[in-house]
Amino acid sequence: MEGGSVNELNGNSIHSKEDSNADEAFDTTIEELCKNLCELQSSTNQSPSRQSFGSYGDESKIDSDLQHLALGETRDFDITTEDEGEEDQLEKPQEFDMVRPGTGSTSRKSSSSAEAMPKDTEKQVGKKNANRSSLGLGGTGTTRKKKAGTKLQNGNEEQPSTENVELARFLLNQARNLVSSGDNINKALELSLRAAKLFEASADNGKPCLEWIMCLHVTAAIHCKLKEYKEAIPVLQRSVEIPVVEQGEEHALAKFAGLMQLGDTYAMVGQLENAVSCYTEGLQIQKKVLGENDPRVGETCRYLAEALVQALRFDEAQEVCETALSIHRENGLPASISEAADRRLMGLICETKGDHENALEHLVLASMAMAANGQESEVAFVDTSIGDSYLSLSRYDEAICAYQKSLTALKTAKGENHPAVGSVYIRLADLYNRTGKVREAKSYCENALRIYESHNLEISPEEIASGLTDISVICESMNEVEQAITLLQKALKIYADSPGQKIMIAGIEAQMGVLYYMMGQYIESYNTFKSAVSKLRATGKKQSTFFGIALNQMGLACIQLDALEEAVELFEEAKCILEQECSPYHPETLGVYSNLAGAYDAIGRLDDAIALLGHVVGVREEKLGTANSGTEDEKKRLVQLLKESGKVSRRKAKSLKTLIDSELMTSSALR
Question: Average pLDDT, stretch 387-404?
């Protein structure tokens, strides 16, 4: 578990906020955003359309007129002049309440339930909760009513701004109704786009309009509902450009909402670094408005920490999560739900970093707090994580107890065929396989496979793919390599190159590359590694330990295919990355040095090979001692190189067999 394997990093989700799928999340986002937009109308607004917009009563005169325009018809407006002669009225300032994603007045969940930790977060990496509107809205910004029929200097009559705003509100309400009914999402998008243009046109001299901003949020949510994530991104980018933070709290909080929604959308297309940047900027705005120690800031800190985990930035994730924990301890009662959620995340971060003792401590405290707060269903998931920590510490009996306790609770609460039950089966299979009880391991694998291949509509495709991937790792360890590849191919087919799952897909392909290499199918190994490396480059993972290891493995495949120059390039890139990410003395880095030394020798760069191998021998003697078998082997290789200096051309073929670190050909970090 130390360092985190590909399977562990890509199969365990920290970032899912709940089990609902993305479509449901966007449905709710649209509902809540539109609800907020309705509330933007001032309570002092006495226009005839006010009643029908906020209720389901009879249509007003203006609503009837607006409906014709919404359907693309033209009709003369019969605007009464009751307001003529009245004093211009200032509408009440908008009131915001900035909260973390998923809570507060705009959330689909109550504040108490929103604070609960996600279900089985450690087994659902690729999933994202997109409901982060996070903006509670009261009245509107300061706006003056304009009298109908104002004359311009050229004698033409100006289109009343009030009519544009009323029409925009109506169009957006119609869009909401279409989304809610599911009748015509494309029409809903068309209406919301028209509404956005009207709000923009109604803005005085391009001044920021809060209703316009919220309309853009809704439009982007509808794009996402249609899985048009790339189209949603520029809309949200525009929405965060409009607010002027210096103009007050309302604009600052509107920008916060846009940044969080933009971060979610980046995450949906696999651009995790951009997502983290958005969340970080949103957090800074929230801190400025609410203060450093507001509980809602703590919620957003945890959210950012989850995103950092998914981006494999574990040190930063731990630091941000510690901040969240500190805030919640200061503001809440001991063992609060928020503190339990923070500790659960902290436990998973520590476990991934190999700090199993601290992970166990955080998880046990989280389990106790959740039990004290009546969250029994969540306790079962935490017990699974506690079992993971015991397993990592080789405390097998305690791990079995934790897993069995979790299994019993999950079967009772979720049913025999729930994916969470399958997840515990996989863990038990892994445990029994490690302890040499192969028959029990195979039995639990079969139970898990039965769940994931049951065609249960309640199991998401991502959960199925993750389960198949985990089972393949156990099959590999039991030398059932062909079965492992078959399962990985099924998982790969499920993801179908989804843009939001590129890291997951790259991890699966890397595993397949290792298995193909073990089977002697070097061309297939090279091709799958090449595909994995390409995806990792596209997602910005060019400076991660996993990327360095994948490059090393691809280089080994090149050696077997006599592509020596390409192998050298891959080893050199892997060397630079691992030196930075792990240090020059880390075992993974030393393994790459050994492989690169062999490749240098094979292409005639003997001096470079001797220098690298000398470094490896020196470090291993210092760390492992001269009596260590690995150190002795490296020393023999170095002595051989020194003796045969100047004879490289006659021993090139020999170097390919003897100077490659065979231990890294099946590096555990790619399993």
Answer: 95
